[in-house]
Amino acid sequence: MASTRPGQRKLQILQALAAMLEQPKGEKITTAALAARLSVSEAALYRHFASKAQMFEGLIEFIESSVFGVINQITEKEERGVDQLHAMLQMLLAFAANNPGMTRLLIGDALVGEDERLQARMNGFYDRIELACKGALRLAVTQGHGVEDDVAARASLLVSYVTGRWHRYAKSGFRQNPAEGTDVQLSLLLAA
């Protein structure tokens, strides 16, 4: 590869890793395979990342900043709690559809056999998603939609629904779009 500016090589490595995660077979990714894909040595990878776990952390940071950035925009734009929830859930499903490799991180199968702190970080991601759902549900309750006693259970159900759609998408070899045909399902889940 031609010489690149600092930071650009890091981005290339992360993009190549994300592309490798898009392979529907879901095989374990090695630094040797990643280096070969980029036509560099493994040592070149380690000049930019201390470990493969750090590479995965770079992708997780991308997921977190993308998802929570949009959630913040949704909560600022949508006044109704139910509308916030609907927009958040649709965004989470569309994010997976637009980023199949990231879906393997979202469901954790790309992290099997990797550093356990990566799965712990993804668990924290799920907690933050559930917290965002609770916030929108509480707002919906103040607007006459639902009851306060149901907030935690409903938030958990909504996160389980999204993760179920993500799993189905990954297990279908990225053929079954997670956002397709969800309008009726979301209407049922968000009904008072």
From TrEMBL:
One of its GO terms (molecular function) is transcription cis-regulatory region binding. SUPFAM superfamilies: Homeodomain-like, Tetracyclin repressor-like, C-terminal domain. Signal peptide: none annotated. Keywords: Coiled coil, DNA-binding. The keyword DNA-binding applies. Residues 7-67 form the HTH tetR-type domain. Residues 30-49 bind DNA. Gene3D superfamilies: Tetracycline Repressor, domain 2. It holds the Pfam family SlmA-like_C. NCBIfam families: PRK09480.1 (NF007015). PANTHER family: HTH-TYPE TRANSCRIPTIONAL REGULATOR RUTR, NUCLEOID OCCLUSION FACTOR SLMA. This is Nucleoid occlusion factor SlmA. It comes from Massilia litorea.
